[in-house]
Design a protein that fits this description.
The protein has 311 residues and is an alpha/beta fold. Helix content is 40%, strand content 18%. The chain has helices spanning 27-43, 59-64, 80-92, 117-132, 147-160, 178-190, 208-217, 232-240, 251-267, 301-309; strands spanning 16-20, 46-50, 72-75, 97-100, 112-114, 136-142, 166-173, 199-202, 224-228, 245-248, 288-290, 294-297.
C-alpha cells in the first residue's frame, strides 16, 4: 500500500516542499503555511510559501524553475485551465503535486486536500435561510470562475431552490479585490436600492468584512450577512452583530496534511507518478481528502478565538 512507508522516510538536506498560493498576506494562507511549517519541522526538512499578494498564478512556474528540483508542490488553483499544464509538467518531471483549497481535477495532481465546498455552500445557505426566515432578496459576492467558489455557489443555489421566497438578485465578481465589495454596497446605499436587499452572502474570505463596514458606517441595520472563513475582521463583526455567521475551514490542516502527503509521495512515489489516479479503480490514493468545515456564529465565536489564540 502507498501509505505503508510513512514511519521511516529518509530525509535529505536538500529536501524542500513548496506551497503556491495567491493573496498570501491574508490570514487564511498564513494559517495554511503554519500547518506546512509545523509538518516540515517535524520531518526536519525545508519549505517555502510562494505567491503574489493578489490573485494570479505566475508563482508556480517560478517554483518549477528553481535550481534544486522541488521535492513536492502543493498549489491552490484559481484558474484550473491556466494551471493544469504546469501541474502536468511538474509531474512529468517527477515532482509530486497536490492541490489544496481549490482543485484542478482534470490535471495530474495526486489528490485534492481541502473543504467539501458544496457542503460549505449548503451550510451557509441553511444559516441564511434561518436568518431570513425563508424569504428575501440577497446579493452574493464571489469569484465565479474559481472552482471551489463555483462549488460553494452550487451549494447555495441548490439549498435556495426549495425556499421560493429567497431570490438571488445579483452575483458580484470581486476579482480578488475587497474594495469592489465595499464600493458595490456603498453604491446600493447611495442609489437607495439597499432597502430592496435583505441579505448579503460571501463565498470567499475578504468581501463580508467590507459589507459589514459599509452597513455600519451608514447605520443600516436588519440586513443578514453570511460570510466565509475566519478572517479576524469577520470574527470581530460576528461579535458585534454585523455578520450572522461564517463557514470556517481548516487551513492549518490543509497545510499539514498536504506536506505529509507530499513527503510520502516524494519518498514512496506512486508508479507512474503522472497517471490519472482519479479514474483508477485500484488507486492507492483518495481523490479527495476532506479537512472539514463548520459554522462559527455568536454562540461559539469567543471559544473559537480562544482556541485559535492558543496555537
Amino acid at each position: 500500500m502507498w501509505l505503508a512507508g510513512c514511519s521511516g522516510s529518509p530525509h535529505a538536506s536538500t529536501e524542500k516542499y513548496y506551497l503556491v498560493a495567491a493573496n498570501i498576506k491574508i490570514p487564511y494562507w498564513q494559517n495554511v503555511n503554519a500547518g506546512l511549517m509545523h509538518a516540515v519541522t517535524q520531518m526536519g526538512v525545508k519549505a517555502e510559501m510562494s505567491g503574489p499578494d493578489t490573485f494570479d498564478h505566475d508563482a508556480f512556474q517560478q517554483v518549477l524553475a528553481e535550481k534544486i528540483k522541488p521535492s513536492g508542490i502543493m498549489v491552490s488553483v484559481a484558474d484550473p485551465a491556466l494551471i493544469q499544464p504546469d501541474i502536468d509538467a511538474a509531474t512529468a518531471q517527477g515532482i509530486p503535486v497536490v492541490t489544496v483549497d481549490a482543485d484542478a481535477p482534470a490535471s495530474k495532481r495526486l489528490t485534492f486536500i481541502g473543504t467539501d465546498n458544496y457542503k460549505a455552500g449548503t451550510m451557509g445557505a441553511e444559516l441564511a435561510i434561518k436568518q431570513l426566515q425563508g424569504k428575501g432578496n440577497v446579493v452574493i459576492f464571489a469569484m465565479p470562475e474559481q472552482a471551489n467558489l463555483k462549488d460553494r455557489l452550487h451549494g447555495y443555489h441548490d439549498a435556495f431552490e426549495t425556499h421560493y421566497g429567497i431570490k438571488v438578485v445579483e452575483t458580484v465578481d470581486i476579482k480578488g479585490d475587497p474594495r469592489i465589495a465595499f464600493d458595490h454596497v456603498q453604491e446600493l446605499v447611495d442609489k437607495k436600492i439597499i432597502d430592496k436587499i435583505d441579505g448579503f452572502i460571501c463565498v470567499e474570505a475578504i468581501a463580508c468584512p467590507e459589507v459589514a463596514d459599509v452597513l455600519d458606517r451608514n447605520k443600516i441595520t436588519g440586513k443578514v450577512v453570511v460570510a466565509m472563513d475566519t478572517d479576524p475582521r469577520t470574527l470581530d463583526w460576528i461579535k458585534k452583530g454585523g455578520i450572522a455567521g461564517t463557514i470556517a475551514q481548516k487551513p492549518f490542516t490543509m497545510g499539514y496534511v498536504g506536506a505529509m502527503t507530499l513527503d510520502l509521495a516524494h519518498h514512496y512515489p506512486p508508479v507512474p507518478l503522472d497517471k490519472n489516479w482519479a479514474v483508477d479503480p485500484h488507486s492507492q490514493l483518495p481523490t479527495f481528502m476532506g479537512t472539514g468545515e463548520f459554522l462559527v456564529d455568536k454562540s461559539n465565536v469567543d471559544s473559537f478565538i480562544s482556541e485559535t489564540a492558543q496555537k
